[in-house]
Specification:
By secondary structure, the protein is mostly helical. Helices cover about 60% and strands about 5% of the residues.
Length: about 140
């Protein structure tokens, strides 16, 4: 198999480490078994940490024979990227699911793809719900 070499400066390497960590976390966070393809790439990328002077952010775990991010660095990445993503995704998915529910109430079974009329109505509902949640927050939501 053909090998691909990358030349990165230290800043680019650190950005690659962060991208690989976050991508691997996203892929594996919902699985019982790790995706070995992602884990293999993660290990390959993290193994070069000494060349980039990242001993304060990455270490080799001898007991498991893997490289891992230091807990503080991992926490920093979660706070910087994951928390914001989850907050945005939560509201976005909530609006999407609520609009689907309302669309089903109005039209019955929904065909895929949606008709132009249904798509227009869905966008209208999503805008209404988004505005309402933005104005009043979650306090007006009720479960029945």
């Amino acid at each position: 198999m053909k090998k691909i070499n990358l030349e990165l400066d230290e800043k680019q390497y650190q950005t690659l480490v962060e991208a690989v960590f976050l991508g691997t976390w996203m892929v594996n966070s919902t699985k019982l078994e790790l995706d070995e393809n992602f884990e293999e790439i993660r290990e390959l990328v993290l193994s070069k940490y000494k060349e980039a002077g990242l001993e304060d952010k990455i270490s080799f775990q001898e007991a498991f024979e893997v490289h891992d991010l230091q807990a503080a660095y991992e926490r920093q990445l979660f706070e910087k990227y994951v928390d914001e993503y989850e907050e945005f995704s939560f509201w976005d998915m909530l609006i999407e699911k609520m609009s689907e529910k309302r669309l089903k109430e109005e039209y019955g079974d929904i065909s895929v793809p949606l008709s132009d009329e249904m798509m227009e109505r869905r966008l209208q509902i999503e805008e209404e719900l988004g505005n309402e949640l933005e104005e009043r927050g979650i306090t007006n939501l009720e479960l029945k």
